[in-house]
Structures are given as C-alpha cells and as structure tokens.
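Entry:
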Amino acid sequence: MISDPQQRQHILDRFSFLRVAPLALRAELFDNASIARLPAGRPICDHGSTCSLLPLILVGTGRVYQLGENGREITLYRVEPGESCVLTASCILGHRPFPAFAECESDVEAVVVRAAEVHRWMSESEPWREYLFGLIASRLQEVFGVLDAVLFQRLDQRLVTFLLSARSAAPGRDIRMTHQALAVELGSSREVISRVLKGLEGQGLLRTTRGLIELLDIPGLESRARDG
C-alpha cells in the first residue's frame, strides 16, 4: 500500500494517465502497489526470468539489453521516469519468460504492480490499457530503429549518430564515455570502437582522451552520419 500523500502526488506527477483516470483506479493502485528502491548496477531481470511485478519508474533509469553468444551486449532501450518496461508487461500478459536482461543504470525508485493487477486492469481500465499500448507502440518503434541501424548502417555511421545524439542530450562538445561503454551501446567490441574512433580522429572530426570524446567538427560529423 502507498499511503504517504507526498508519495501519491509524486506518482500522479510522473504518470499523467493516472491524473485523468477514474478515482477508483487510482485508489486501487495506491492500495495494491508498493514502492521499490534499487541501487545502480543492480540486476532487475535475467534472461528466462519469470515476471511477477511490473515497475513504473519514478526516479532513475533502467537499461534493457541483449547478450550475444560472443558475450557482446547491445542496448535495446532504456526505461525512464514516467515509463514502464514493455517487455516485462508483455511477459506478464503472455505468461512468458523475460527474453533479455535488465539492470539499474542509476539508483531507481519505482512503483511495482503485481501481475494479478496488471491483468485485471487490462480488462477493466481503459486508461491503463491506453498507457501500456502507447508504451508498446513507441518502444517497438525504438527497437526497430536499433535493428535497422545494426543491419543496414555501417558502424562508423552508427557511432557518429550516437555521439551526436549524446551531444544533443547534454549540450557541449565533450562526451564523457569510455570505449567499452560505446561498444555496449552499439553491440560491438571495445577494440573495434577504438579503431573507428581513431579513424575519425585522424580526419579531424573528433579528439579522444581517456574517458572523454571531444567533438571538433559538428557539421562534418553530421554529414558523415547522413552520407557515410
């Protein structure tokens, strides 16, 4: 049960669909859900796990990724505040094991809803259905974008696109990220990422130091992302 008024308001602030949902749904959620807090780096789900709880993220970020037979990781998507994990929802609704891995990328605070309520509200609550279906639609588009990039774009284009996106999220020329972290994002190896970065550095497009990438020629990088 979630009884603290401030905590209830925080939940309503994060999840706009609850603000317009019937009071009965809000009351049921507050009566049946609970709050979970997990530290950064904590595994949330392993491949093949049974999903019995659906997290609604209030604070922090969770990362969902796939692990290849060669041991390389590729990030599928992240779950941010105001969102939930659509793979977890689909596993609960379809009675299937979790097909990937999930971990806390930062300290996470979440509302956790039991599988029984997830099922019941899907049949009884239109706002709940619209929320989950909306997440599924947007997340599918994101995952297909990852697949499209992996299958049809060269690694240097994908790397440049990622760096430009990271710059947009945190304006500035410097991106603090290791070569290994970039490899995890792009489903490659650290050695290959280092080789591609060295090539881009040789063209004067960026500069790399330990844990830091400085973007020197933004127009040139944008052209590289578009045209290769």
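The chain has ten helices and ten strands.
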